[in-house]
Amino acid sequence: MRQINKVAVLGAGVMGATIAAHLANAGIGVLLLDIVPGQPNDAEQARGLGLSDRAVRDRLAVQAIAGLGSLKPAPLYLPDYAANLEAGNLEDDLTRLGECDWVIEVVLENLEVKKRLFAEKVVPNLKEGSILSSNTSGLSVNALAEVLPDAVRRNFLVTHFFNPPRYMRLMEMVPCRETDPAVTAFMAGFLAKKLGKGVVYAKDTPNFIANRIGTYAGAITGKHMEEMGLTVEEVDAITGPALGRPKTATFALWDLVGIDTVARVLDNSYEALPDDDEREVFRAPESIEKMVAAGLTGKKAKRGFYKRETVNGESVKFYYDYRSASYQQATSPKFASVQATKQIDDPAQRIRTLLEGGDQAAQFAWKTLRDTLIYTAKRIPEIADDVVNVDNAMKWGYNWELGPFEILDAIGVAVFVARAAADGVAVPELLQGVERFYRREAGKEYFYDVASKTFREIERPASSVSLTLLKDAGRVIEKNSAASLIDLEDGVFCLEFHSKMNTIGGDTLSLIQKSIRRTEQDGVGLVIANQGGMFSAGANLMLLSMGIAEAAFDEIALLVKSFQKAMMAIKYARIPVVAAPHNLVMGGGCETCLHSDAIVAQAETYMGLVEIGVGILPAGGGTKEMALRAIKLADEYETDVTPFLLKNYRNIAMGKVSASAAELYGMGFLRHGDGITLDPDKRIHDAKLKVLALAATYRPSRPVTGVKAPGRSIAASIKTQLWNLKEGGFISEYDKYLASGIADVITGGDVPGGTLISEEYLLDLEREMFLKFCGQKKTAERIQHMLKKGRALRN
Q1: Which residues pair with 34 in a beta bridge?
Q2: What's the Cα-to-Cα distance from 629 to each of 11, 404, 647, rounded to whole Å?
Q3: HEC profile for 72-83?
Q4: What confidence tens digit (pLDDT) does each residue in 345-357 have?
Q5: Is residue 647 a contact partner of residue 428, using CB atoms and an 8 Å limit?
Q6: 696 exposed, middle or buried (CB, 10 Å; 0-12, 13-18, 19+)?
Q7: Is the pLDDT of residue 276 over 60?
Q8: Are 587 and 503 contacting, i.e. CB atoms less than 8 angstroms apart?
Q9: 520 membership: H or E segment, kind and range
Q10: Closest CA to 259 of 195, 315, 307
Q11: Strand order in the sheet with 598-602
Q12: Kind and range of the H or E element at 683?
C-alpha cells in the first residue's frame, strides 16, 4: 500500500516554505532544500556569526524555516510543528531525495529552470516509485515531463497549491499524458484527507482553471469600470459580498496579491493564449502599467489601489483614481441595489437581488457577471471536463460563495440567455436549451455533463457528509426555525443550527433539549455540527440587546437559565454527545462544545469565550466549566489550583480566540481523546465515528458536587493585577470592572479557599454576575457597537 511519510520540498521561497509548513501541520516529515548561496560576502558574514560551513550552505532553507514564525497569516498551526522541518541544500542533500515518498518542486516559475532541475538533480536521486510534482501555477505539465524518463513520468503531475497553502483549500491537479491514473487517484485522496485540500482536475492549459477564470473576471471588471466611469472604490462595493464574493472584492484583492504580480499574470496570459477569442481582455491596461512603474504595487508597498495616511491624527483611507493618476479620499459609496442585499444570507438570492436593481451598480454587476459567465461556459471542455471542477475551483481558490455554473442556476439559465441576447451578446451553445446545471433528487446531487448532455451523479466519498443532501432525502427528525435534528444512520443523530450566523436563542435551546431526549430514546449518540460559514457566533445578541433596552431582566434571567439547562443536558445526557466545530466558534458556541463529551474540530477552528468584548461573561456554563477543569487538574496532580485557574481565567478575561484547533489543547478547551481533522468534508463523519466509539462503553456522569472552591484570596490576587494593568493604561476602568466580576465567579465567589461547592452553585454565580453586567450602561454600549460595527468596543 502506497504511503507518504516524508516529503522533499525543493525551493525555500515563501511558497515553498509555507507548503512545507502545511505538510508539517499534517505531521509529515519535510526536507526543505534550496540552492547554496552564491554570495561570498554573505557566506563570510554568516561564518562571522559562528555558523558552521554546512549551516552557511543550508542558509536559505534555515532562514525560511526560522522565518515561518513571523509570517502573517501564520503558516503553522503551532510554532512547535516546525520540528517536522529539516533544512538542507540542493547540492549536499540530493541523495536524500531517495528517502522521500513525494518530491515537490517549488522553484522559479520558469520552464527551463524547472526542466534543468528535474533532469540534472532530481531524476538521478529519486527512489523507485516516488511521486514527483511541480507547483507551477500555469506552465505545461507535458512540457515539464519532456525531460523525465518514462518510469518517472508515470508518477509525475502538477500539484498547484494556492497561496497561502494552509488557508486556501484549492488544489489543482494536472496529470501529464503518461501519469498513471492510480497515482492521480492516490494523490487526490491523500491531499484531501491528509492536507484538507479540495482537489479539482484541470487540463494542461495556461493558468489551469481558477486563475484562468479569476484573471479574466478581474480584467473584464476593470474594462467595464473604465467604460462606465466608476471608481475602484465603487467597483469594490459592488463586486464583494453582494456578488457572492469576499470583502476584498476586486481591487482590494489585487492590492493583496500585488499589482505587479497581477500585471505579470495578465501579460503571461496574453502571451500564452494566442487563440483565445477574448485574448485582448488579458492585455494589461495602461493605468496598471503606470502604477507598477510608480511603485504602487499594493499592500507590500503600503500603497496601491488603496492607501492609508494619517490626517489630523486619524487614519484616513484613500483610493487610486486611475483617470487622474492621483489618490482621492475614500467615500464609502452606497448603491440601493447593493444595500438591498445586506440582510440576505443566501448568496443566490443576494445575486438575484443585486441584478434586479435599477441603478448603475446593478448594470455594472450584470455586465461583468454576464461576460465572466459566458467566458467560463466557452472554456468547457478546454480547461476542465465538467462544470463541477470549474465551480469548485472558483469557490476554493477565489472564495466565491457560488461557482460560475451555480450562479447561472441562481439567475436561471434561460433568464440569463434571454438577457444576454437582449444586449446583443452571443451566447455559447452550452447555454442553449439547458434548464440548469445542477439538481438534487432523493438525497443525491447531479450535474449536467456537457459531453453526454445528460445529468450524472456527483461522486462523493463515503466519508463526505452533506447535511443538505440528508435533509433533502427526508432524514430530518425534528426541526424548528433555528435548528434541525438529522439522522446520520447507525443510531447517530446530528443537531444542526441554521439561524443567522448560527446564533443560539430560545428555539435553538429548545431543540437541544428535544434532540437529547430523542437520541436517548431512539439512538446511541448525538453529533452537534453545522455546515457553511461558521459553527456559531454565540448567543443571540439582538435578543439580549432588546431585553436590556426594555429592562426585561426577569426574561433575561430565564433565558440564561434555559441556556444553562441546555448545556447541562448536553453534559449529562445518557448518550455520548460529540461536537464537531469549524471556523468561528464564539461564546455560546464554544460553551456548547465545552459541555460535549468529546470534540472533533476542523483544523481551522477559531474558538473562544469572548463575552467580555460585549460587556458580559460566559454564563452558559463556560466560566463554570473552566473553573471545574482547573480544579480537576489540580486534584489530579495534587498541587495548587492557582496556575491552572489563572490560565483559564486569562482566556476568558482577555477574550482569547484560538488561531487554530491545535491551540485549543493549550487553552484547555480540547482534552485527551478529542481530535482534529484537516479535511472539512470528513469532520461530521469523524465525529460520528467518535460517537460510536464512545457509545460502546459509555457511562453517563452526574453533576459535580463537593469540589473545593479556589476562593476569595485568589480573586483578590487577580484584582491586584487588574489594578496594576489599569494604572498602566493597558485596560480601561470598565475592563477592570468586568474582569473583576469574572474573577469572583471563576474562583467560587466570596468564600475561603477549600470551601466545598457544587456545579449548580457556580452556575448560579454565573447567572447573577451576568445580570449584574447587563444592568450597566457600558455593557449596553458594547453590545450595540458589536451589532452595528461587528467589532468590540473598549469603553
Answers
A1: 89
A2: 45, 48, 11
A3: CCCCCCCHHHHH
A4: 999 999 999 999 9
A5: no
A6: exposed
A7: yes
A8: no
A9: helix 506-522
A10: 307
A11: 476-479, 483-487, 492-497, 525-528, 577-579, 598-602, 675-677
A12: helix 683-695
Single-letter amino acid code for the residue at 696: A
762: closest CA among 509, 587, 615, 568? 568
Cis peptide before 181 (omega within 30 of 0): no
* Alpha-carbon gap, residue 87 to 605, rounded angstroms: 30
Query: What are the grid coordinates assigned to 580, written together?
Result: 464537531
- Cβ–Cβ under 8 Å, residues 300 and 258: yes
What's the rounded mean pLDDT across residues 562-580? Answer: 98
Q: State the pTM of this model.
A: 0.94
Q: What is the pLDDT of residue 48?
A: 61
Could you tell me the three cell numbers for 744?
Answer: 469572583
How far apart (Å, rounded) are the C-alpha atoms in residues 657 and 655?
6
- The neighbour count for residue 671, using CB atoms within 10 Å, is 12
For residues 161 and 343, the model is more confident at 161
Quote the pLDDT of residue 520.
98
List 6's β-bridge partners, or say none: 29
CB atoms within 10 A of CB 97: 22
Q: Residue 117: which residues within 8 A CB-CB, separation 6 or more? A: 10, 90, 105, 107
CA distances from 768 to 187, 336, 554, 741, 749 (A): 55, 45, 12, 10, 11
The yes-or-no verdict on residue 322 having pLDDT over 70 is yes
Query: Could you count the other beta carbons within 10 Å of the beta carbon of residue 784?
Result: 16
Q: Which residues contact 432 (CB under 8 A, 6 or more apart)?
A: 417
Phi, psi of 537 (to 5 degrees): -85, 0
Neighbours of 39 (CB within 10 A): 9
Distance (Å) of CA 715 to CA 484, 519, 611: 41, 41, 19
Within the chain, how many helices (H) and strands (E) appear? 32, 25
Q: Find where cell 446583443 sits.
A: 424
- Supply the DSSP string of 555-602, one letter for each residue: HHHHHHHHHHHHHHHHHT-SS-EEE---EEEETHHHHHHHTSSEEEEE
pLDDT in tens, 746-775: 999 999 999 999 999 999 999 999 999 999
In the chain, the domains with their CATH numbers are 6-201 (3.40.50.720), 210-449 (1.10.1040.50), 464-607+671-690 (3.90.226.10), 611-656+702-795 (no CATH)
Q: Which amino acid is at 547?
A: G
